[in-house]
Amino acid sequence: MGWFKRSKQNISPDSIKTDIPDGQWIKCNSCGEIIHIKQLELNHWVCLKCDYHFRIGSEEYIALLFDKGSFKEYDKKMKSGDPLEFTDTKKYNDRINATIKKTGLYDAVRTGIGKINDIKVSFACMDFKFIGGSMGSVVGEKIARAIDRAYEQKIPLIIISQSGGARMMEGAFSLMQMAKTSTRLARLDEAKIPYISIMTDPTTGGTTASYAMLGDFNLAEPKALIGFAGPRVIKQTIGKDLPEGFQKSEFVEEHGFIDFIVHRKELKQKLTKLIDLVS
Amino acid sequence: MANNILDFEKPIIELEKKIEEMRKYEDNLDINDEIKNLEEKVTKLKNSVYENLTRWQRVQLARHPERPYTLDYIYMMTDEFIELHGDRYYKDDKAIVGGFTKMDDEKVMIIGHQKGRDTKSNLYRNFGMPNPEGYRKALRLMKLAEKFNKPVITLLDTPGAFPGLEAEENGQAEAIARNLFEMARLQVPIIVVVIGEGASGGALGIGVGNTVMMLQNTWYSVISPESCSSILWRSWDYKEQAAEALKLTAPDLLEQGIIDKIIPEPIGGAHRDHKKIAAALKTELLAEIAVLKKMKPEKLVQHRLEKFGKMGIYNE
Ligand SMILES: [Zn+2]
């Protein structure tokens, strides 16, 4: 459960219940409200007071979307091959192994097939906590296979993106995952199979510039950062402060690149309806 | 010219100048011998310098301001070029150029990034950094080529897609993604050549082809060495290390199986002999067109799917 910020020191005395162990309370990043973890889970990891969507991972999304026990994961243990034997301040290989140990994940995406209100779908969900949700060879290959499962079984495809972009440590290999996934999506499109892309906070770089923006339906969670270049780089380039709300879901929707923003509470129902309308 | 000499070019260019000076007194036999000596020395020096370039030095050559750019190649390789402008939605992006033209007897569509050669033209060309309308113009031209059954050639040379405010508003990410998607299923041959800098999605946005080649002194990767240095080393000072780590040169990419072929440059780099590199590129392009023209549209599409499908290294 490393996805939220524990904030013991910010908890006001009156909100601490002595019978509750440490780390059971979470502070909202947006409004500062202190919420009990069970309450938050029941509310789909959305702040009860201000609707802030806490960043959650594949595990939570699978629980949120899929009918109990229906999700079957594929290629779970596919692992990066470190194609460049890359070293910066650390060896990439060590970074991978440490991240696997820390997160229990093998890379930044999980894929599989499951049922959403009895509708069978091929599914991929990224995890930001695995090296910033970066897209390398494993992410590209697993997404490509998820697309192929949708293609072969003629079932809808849903991809939840949560990624800082391509994984630098795989150089041109990571860049080519953009082409790999997009060429596969073109084939899926020819077969007239629906693809729903859901962008969550953050979706930037090569991920946005490939499969995340290529949905028949592009959805986003509220207030997620969505863009190509990161805000820091843009600020440097133009030498000015960025306008309020720049690159947020609402901004991207306003500019015509998202079909609609969906509250996490309604995600499962919205997906069910949307798929039904085009079946 | 004097301003554009790279550090490792200096000793060579100084020697060459010296030879040129001495040529003025060529009648003198003694000097003739000395010229011959110096010429041998230059050749040896060139060989040792250019055979042992570091990756960072190659990046510098790829960015050399006297290298030929897309329009130079078009004018040197083809006749009857008609440039086509605009994306039909919003604007004409000057950082991407393209149009129909004729290379010997082959009618082709050529599209490429376009840099400027001085401050003024660089501002006009936005330093070869396209906005979404550039990618959308490129796609429009590719669809035209498809309609009239002409092969598409794209020439890659960009420091990246432009990271600006309007670029984001107008969907930079969507524009690039759309191109990857549509290039995948284009019904005519696509030949891609990196002629300078192949920086990330900004390059790949016109880079999905049946054949992908690189000129010898170019680079192609997911990020520039400078940006990689600033992110991973948290400092701009590790660009040499970053270039080494990224393995971003033409020989690297050939070994990685990401490109099909390296086109050798004149010794010293493409900027030392524009005509020669243009002729070499033209020969390669014509040869590729001859091969790809024989493939049926659905085969071309399948070929691209399989080609990019194979890229990636992972353990199961
Ligand atoms: Zn809140």
Core attributes:
heterodimer; A: alpha/beta; 2 domains; 7-stranded mixed β-sheet; two-stranded antiparallel ribbon; 10 strands; B: alpha/beta; 2-enoyl-CoA Hydratase, Chain A, domain 1; 14 helices; 9 strands; globular; binds zinc ion
* Helix content percent band of chain A: 25-40%
Biggest sheet record of chain A: 7 strands, mixed
Give the domain tally of chain B: 2
Instruction: Name the quaternary structure.
Output: heterodimer
Helix and strand run of chain B: HHHHEEEHHEHHEHEEHHHEHHE
End-to-end separation of chain B: 53 Å
The first-level CATH class name of the largest domain in chain B:
Alpha Beta
**CATH architecture call of the largest domain in chain A:** Alpha-Beta Complex
How many β strands of chain B by DSSP? Answer: 9
Helix content of chain B: 40-55%
Strand order of the largest sheet of chain A: 3-5-6-7-8-9-10
Task: Tell me the greatest interface.
Answer: A-B, 66 and 56 residues
Work out the strand percent of chain B: 15-25%
Annotation field: number of helices of chain A: 9
Instruction: Tell the overall outline of chain A.
Output: globular
The CATH architecture of the largest domain in chain B is Alpha-Beta Complex
Structure description:
The complex is a heterodimer of chains A (279) and B (316). With 279 residues, chain A is an alpha/beta fold. Chain A folds into two domains: 1-54, no CATH class; 57-278, 2-enoyl-CoA Hydratase, Chain A, domain 1, CATH 3.90.226. In chain A, 33% of the residues lie in helices and 18% in strands. Chain A has nine helices and ten strands. Chain A has helices spanning 37-42, 58-65, 92-103, 137-153, 171-190, 205-208, 231-238, 249-254, 267-278, and strands at 25-27, 34-36, 72-74, 79-80, 109-116, 119-126, 157-163, 195-203, 217-220, 260-261. In chain A, the strands form two sheets. In chain A, strands 3-5-6-7-8-9-10 form a seven-stranded mixed β-sheet, sandwiched between helices. In chain A, strands 1-2 form a two-stranded antiparallel sheet. In chain A, 48% of the residues are buried. Chain B has two domains: 2-52; 59-309, Alpha-Beta Complex (2-enoyl-CoA Hydratase, Chain A, domain 1), CATH 3.90.226.10. The complex binds zinc ion. Residues 28, 30-31, 33, 47, 49-50, 52 of chain A line the site of zinc ion. Zinc ion binds at residues 28, 30-31, 33, 47, 49-50, 52 of chain A.
